[in-house]
Write a structure and sequence with these properties.
257 residues; alpha+beta; Immunoglobulin-like; eight-stranded mixed beta sheet; six-stranded mixed beta sheet; 3 helices; 16 strands; 16% helix; binds copper (II) ion
Length: 257
């Protein structure tokens, strides 16, 4: 057997150690992705016809329902959920369709910083429905409160559901924004969702149209709801859950399925 130089042997050992390091690194990386797997669950709107689909969403004043394993700091974060249990991080909707969003809003109101987001924008008919009654601006809500016995609303939204194009995406721009009217902060917590008690949610629905497949949009909240603990003014209200995927932001992908 040919004699190898000490440098060769050292190099060989170093390569083996480096190789193990890379394998371990990749494995750890993949493990952390699988750990985040529940964070990145894709939720498709349910097809209701050749050119229509519907998606149920919910917004909660904490993350108990959709992030039951969240550490204490995140457990109090406001959250969007898909229906009553799934995460709303990555939504998918079919192309060239009318999408009906039905949203249960369990949270109380937070004053908007920018009145622009008090207006319903980009929906079909320029309106959204609040417990079955149309509104186009948060200023319409007091009149709806008067004609809805036993259910008063906050004069502020709890969140906004806003869909917009991502930077540098010039195809089929979508801008949809709906102020999600808050529940009255004095309302009784009388609804049990997965062992957590909340006030009766406001049911908010609206419709928008999608264009071609293959485009991903952002959804985001523009009500400064992010500082659940201290209710401080911005920038704190735009921190924490506001910039965390699966809490107050995510994506909407137009996909063939
Ligand atoms: Cu919000």
């Amino acid at each position: 057997m040919k004699q190898r130089s000490p440098a060769f042997v050292i190099g060989l050992i170093a390569s083996i150690i480096l190789g193990f390091g890379i394998v371990a690194g990749v494995w750890l990386g993949l493990s952390s992705i699988s750990g985040l797997g529940s964070e990145s669950g894709v939720f498709r709107a349910t097809r209701t016809g050749p050119n229509s689909a519907t998606r149920e969403l919910a917004t909660y004043p904490d993350s108990h329902v959709c992030h039951p394993d969240a550490p204490a700091e995140q457990a109090i974060w406001v959250t969007y959920c898909s229906g009553d249990n799934g995460l709303a991080t990555k939504l998918e909707v079919p192309p060239n369709s009318v999408i009906t969003v039905v949203l249960k809003q369990y949270d109380s109101g937070t004053t908007l910083i920018n009145d622009y987001f008090g207006q319903v924008r980009g929906t079909m008919g320029g309106v959204a429905m609040l417990d079955g009654k149309p509104f186009s601006n948060i200023s319409d809500v007091s009149a709806i409160s008067k004609t809805t016995p036993g259910h008063t609303f906050s004069s502020d939204p709890g969140h906004t559901f806003t869909i917009q194009s991502v930077p540098n995406e010039y195809r089929y721009p979508i801008f949809v924004s709906v102020p999600l009217i808050g529940v009255n902060s004095s309302a009784h917590a009388n609804v049990n969702v997965a062992g957590n008690m909340y006030a009766t949610p406001n049911i908010i629905s609206f419709q928008f149209r999608t264009g071609p497949a293959g485009i991903t949009y952002l959804w985001h909240c523009y009500d400064p709801c992010g500082d659940t603990q201290y209710a401080r003014k911005p920038p704190f209200g735009f921190s924490g859950p506001m910039w965390t995927l699966g809490y107050m932001s995510g994506t909407v992908s137009v996909t063939n399925y």
